[in-house]
Fold this sequence. Notes:
Elements: E1 5-10, E2 13-18, E3 22-23, H1 28-40, E4 45-49, E5 55-56, H2 58-73, E6 77-81, H3 85-93, E7 101-103, H4 106-111
Parallel strand pairs: 2-4, 3-5, 4-6, 6-7
Antiparallel strand pairs: 1-2
Helix pairs in contact: 1-2
Amino acid sequence: MEPIVEIQNLPNGVLVILQTAHLHMYHIPEFREIMGKEIHNRPEKVILDLANVNYLDSSALGAIFAIHKEIQSYGGKFVLINLNQTIRMVFRLTRADALLLTAESLDDAQKL
């Protein structure tokens, strides 16, 4: 089975690229474990690239909020990039867009 994320180190943090089109409850344990390992190092910035993601279920949204809270607790920044229209709509409807930091691209996220 292929990993659900690709990790790239950045000068001021880490880029996590989701490799799955559907992030749902079956992926969440692995996703949380990988993210936990990355967050353990307390990177200044964690950028989550959602370019490949077409669908999030409620457990995925919950995991994203939990990761956001954990990163905030140590003063780091959590930025979501490359959200498609469907994911943007989900974030708008759930008001997640008011709580989560988003950017159009990696370059934009690194400037935040």
